[in-house]
Amino acid sequence: MSEIVNLSPSLRSLNPKISPLVPPRQLSSSFYQQPRLKFLSFPGKSILATGRVRAIDARRQEVDDSPVSVELGPISSESHFDEVMEEAQRVDESVVIVWMAAWCRKCIYLRPKLEKLAAEFYPRLRFYHVDVNAVPYKLVSRAGVTKMPTIQLWRDNQKQAEVIGGHKAHFVVNEVREMIENDSIT
Questions:
Q1: Residue 93 within a domain
Q2: Where is the Thioredoxin domain (predicted)?
Q3: Which are the catalytic amino acids?
Q4: Is 54 helix (H, G, I), strand (E, B) or coil?
Q5: Residue span of the structural domain in which 139 resides
Q6: Is the pLDDT of residue 132 over 70?
Q7: Angle value at C-alpha 115, between 169 and 25, nearest 5 degrees
Q8: Which residue, 132, 148, 154, 174, has fewest beta-carbon neighbours within 10 Å?
Q9: Is the residue at 83 inside a domain?
């Protein structure tokens, strides 16, 4: 399985021969500092970048190292959901959970936009996704999910807010952004 990192345009401009999606082992060690990169692997899934890429151009000026998008971490069971919530509570952080289904066209269309939004709030906020058809119904009902896609903000093992994404993607993304920013104020 190959690991994929989405590089920002400023990092791609350093070496135009590198495609936007690059397996990290193909980058030279002078291009990035490996200790700043961490990868989490999920069985049968892509690799999720959890660190930042730091690059310095030829003039020794630091380049914007923000990720362009951050892949939504999968939640595959009720116990995994509980682990995510416990970890978030332990580090006193909120978590965004995107409830979707593989058959849902709006979910499929919205996902890359939410991955870009996740990059805006990275690393202080983690985004996860749950395929409602792949987890027990008990978890779906516990979260109060009745429509897809549903985007929820959780803190202290409690649902704080939610957005039901049945309308245009840019409206949903703006509502999710507003939901997150309102949580940051409190």
A1: yes
A2: 61-185
A3: 104, 107
A4: coil
A5: 73-184
A6: yes
A7: 150
A8: 174
A9: yes
